[in-house]
């Protein structure tokens, strides 16, 4: 284990015999070793180890007292500071954090500072403690995989990929910023770094201009280049650590590519991990720190100069490459017929496993955190349907480069508009004023980590709510949908619903859930749908001829089912139990939105609460009419 401690004994003082630390001191030093290795982030620029700036020395001491079982083994705070400074001089708490800050840490740190009573402060401290412990566990899991790849190279390899801040690599680059140089006149260059742990550490740096999109196609292209240029035999297991972003890494496109690697027998198992958002600073960022330090000392006017600075600033020397295009893997798997099955609730989990199952099928499992015991769902999900050998992967479309012909004119415009706009006051602490209401341990964990939402395929279900009852318990299993039954689906405005009748079930997935159905839309008068009659909707073809029943084939993976298998009253109105079911689902959808978009969710909640008084249009989806 890597040790941050300078020495294991007290330094001998002059004219005295060196004394051994007490048993309590040894316990403290062992605890500090474990704590700092789990929470510290090494800074290659100065060789120091930084604790996140939302820690204080007193909080670290409180963690030490809590983790020490016997009270008599705890040292006093003064002794704690003495040993931590004496044996860990490289560990510091920075005054400011240069990297992105975790929203949860920032929010609860502010709540703690504003807390008045001991109960309020204790609740916030407990919440922060659980959050910090979980991010430390995720970091420890990534560290164990790195060590495993270095110690057992025949069994596994570890690849970590992340992007660097584009402001530091724009060309031409000046070591000292000049006021006469406007940032809009610089050519943007995006740097993506990769670290491969296999026997030893290998580093790569990929450079792209702004006309290459930073999306899942870029990540897949980098992975493919790394695997194609692999110098040794590929091991059976691949550990992959990527940045926790949906645009580039945490999406169905990359998951389909990883599953295809197993289908092609490149690997037998792939494990993909994500650190918690706001706590993703890791080894690749340490390499980027060295690049930044070198760029502060040297100028880089051209791409060749930039590559030279990067290659000479880190050990082992990174191999640099320039990418002018990426493979369009997204188009390759999305053109009809699709090659993959869409997975839902990907963003809610941090750990994923791709493995060849007993039936020689590639399946994917997930865990919310690395500390969870079981992978879900138990049988896994097959996200690759088939592989079409007749298709070809083409180059993705480039984004047009920015025109620099009118830079001076644009600069003058910005300077003239500035005084007219005035100073913009940002109020980014509106969420801090909300009260903290933590009652039980389970409620506290739910507030920090959210509810478990394993991945699934098939029709899109409403996300689970934080309320006591789950919406899934209200609507039941979608496998029970049968022909001639009625469905209530969420409308486009997400405040109302549409009614349809299932005429025929065209396709079902492996779990037995219908994915494509042929339906007949039902409409009501231009008024409250909860109290009015429903009639089969009729529409004219291209606005001409007699109106015919409006029938359509819909994909249940693209809609949210609010209720199903219900019937109308004799007056062709909704029954009370169906009305309650739909209202509950709509209300919870509004509450879920309130957590991420408070201002939008307030309007949704008001629209639902006033559904009895206000008129709500429910006349079927606004789409193109089908031909007879």
UniProtKB/TrEMBL annotation:
Residues 449-470, 593-628 are annotated as: Disordered. Coiled coil: none annotated. Residues 610-628 have a biased composition (Acidic residues). Residues 598-608 have a biased composition (Polar residues). Residues 181-372 form the DUF7869 domain. This is DUF7869 domain-containing protein.
């Amino acid at each position: 284990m890597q040790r941050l401690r300078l020495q294991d004994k007290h330094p001998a003082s002059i004219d005295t015999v060196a004394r051994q630390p007490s048993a309590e001191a040894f316990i403290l030093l062992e605890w500090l070793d474990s704590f700092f290795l789990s929470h510290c982030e090494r800074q290659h620029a100065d060789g120091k180890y930084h604790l996140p700036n939302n820690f204080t020395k007193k909080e670290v001491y409180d963690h030490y007292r809590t983790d020490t079982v016997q009270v008599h083994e705890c040292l006093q705070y003064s002794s704690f500071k003495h040993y931590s400074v004496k044996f860990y001089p490289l560990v510091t708490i920075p005054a400011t954090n240069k990297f992105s800050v975790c929203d949860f840490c920032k929010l609860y740190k502010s709540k703690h500072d504003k807390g008045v009573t001991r109960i309020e402060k204790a609740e916030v401290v407990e919440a922060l403690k659980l959050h910090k412990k979980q991010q430390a566990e995720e970091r420890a899991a990534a560290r164990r995989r790195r060590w495993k790849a270095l110690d057992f190279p025949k069994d596994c390899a570890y690849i970590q990929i992340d992007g660097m801040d584009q402001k530091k690599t724009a060309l031409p680059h000046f070591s000292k910023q000049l006021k006469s140089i406007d940032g809009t006149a610089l050519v943007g260059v995006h740097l993506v770094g990769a670290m491969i742990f296999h026997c030893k550490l290998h580093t790569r740096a990929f450079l792209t201009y702004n006309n290459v999109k930073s999306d899942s196609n870029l990540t897949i292209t980098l992975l493919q280049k790394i695997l194609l240029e692999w110098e040794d035999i590929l091991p059976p297991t691949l550990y992959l650590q990527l940045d926790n972003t949906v645009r580039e890494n945490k999406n169905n496109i990359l998951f389909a590519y990883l599953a295809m690697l197993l289908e092609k027998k490149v690997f037998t198992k792939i494990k993909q991990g994500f650190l918690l958002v706001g706590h993703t600073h890791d080894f690749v960022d340490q390499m980027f720190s060295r690049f930044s330090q070198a760029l502060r000392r040297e100028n880089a006017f051209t791409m060749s100069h930039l590559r030279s600075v990067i290659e000479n600033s880190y050990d082992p020397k990174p191999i640099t490459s320039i990418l002018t295009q990426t493979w369009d893997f997204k188009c390759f798997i999305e053109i009809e017929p699709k090659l993959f099955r869409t997975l839902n609730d990907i963003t809610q989990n941090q750990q994923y496993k791709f493995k060849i199952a007993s039936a020689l099928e590639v399946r994917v499992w997930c865990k919310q955190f690395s500390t969870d015991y079981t992978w879900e769902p138990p049988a896994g999900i097959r996200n690759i349907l088939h592989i079409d050998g007749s298709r070809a992967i083409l180059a993705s479309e480039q984004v047009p480069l920015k025109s620099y012909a009118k830079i001076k004119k644009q600069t003058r415009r910005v300077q003239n508009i500035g005084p007219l706009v005035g100073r913009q006051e940002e109020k980014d602490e509106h969420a801090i004023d909300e009260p903290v209401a933590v009652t039980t341990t389970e409620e506290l964990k739910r507030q920090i980590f959210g509810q478990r939402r394993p991945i699934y395929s098939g029709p899109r279900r409403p996300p689970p709510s934080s309320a006591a009852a789950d919406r899934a318990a209200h609507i039941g299993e979608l496998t029970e949908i049968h022909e001639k039954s009625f469905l209530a689906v969420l409308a486009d405005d997400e405040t109302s619903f549409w009614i349809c009748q299932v005429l025929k079930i065209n396709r079902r997935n492996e779990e037995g859930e219908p994915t494509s159905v042929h339906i007949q839309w039902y409409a009501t008068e231009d008024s409250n749908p909860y109290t009015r009659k429903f009639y089969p909707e009729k529409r004219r073809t291209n606005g001409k001829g007699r109106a015919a029943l409006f029938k359509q084939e819909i994909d249940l993976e693209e809609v949210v089912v609010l209720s199903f298998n219900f019937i109308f009253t004799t007056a062709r109105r909704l029954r009370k139990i169906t009305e309650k079911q739909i209202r509950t689902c709509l209300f919870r959808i509004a509450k879920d939105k309130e957590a991420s978009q408070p201002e939008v969710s307030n309007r949704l909640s008001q629209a639902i609460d006033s559904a009895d008084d206000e008129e709500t249009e429910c006349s079927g989806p606004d789409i193109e009419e089908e031909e007879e």
